[in-house]
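Moderator note: this is an archived Q&A kept for reference. The question asked for a predicted structure of one protein chain; the sequence and the answer are reproduced below.
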Amino acid sequence: MRKYVLFYIGFCLLLINCNEDKASTAIKETQEQIDAKTITQKEISDLKYADFGLSADSQTAVNDWQKYQELTTHIEALKKADLNFFSTERLLLKTFFLEFRTEMPVNLQTNEILARITALDTKAQKLNSLLRLNNIEKQNKIVAIKELLVAVSNLNLQINKKFEFEKNNVIKSE
């Protein structure tokens, strides 16, 4: 009987020890795997899109718009592969764009510009969602960055068009 008890205890210890070995093994990422997931400044600068800046009249109109200046700072950081602002909590990004709209100068509040801001907000939310997930392919994140940069460029273009139309006294048809 004693042999059976010792055998049973030895067998249980063997099972417990074998089970611990399997649980203690951890998956470690190599530096190559981490680099393969990291978006670089070169990859962002290699993106092909029409990047519109603001004209002198447009620049004057947005000088006092603090949130636009802040957006410009965040976009410049994004172009340098600093993704921190766009990978923060979703609530912070939503709050930023809500304040972006409410602090907008009255002379810029046209349907066309508001539509571009909505598109920009949507692209920023999409990029935020992709950056916060670890299982999304790097290429999908780069495409989302390009879409955001295009949305910013389209906003700048629309602001420029507004002041160009006003300068040329172009009357829109109703």
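Archived answer notes: The mean pLDDT is 84.
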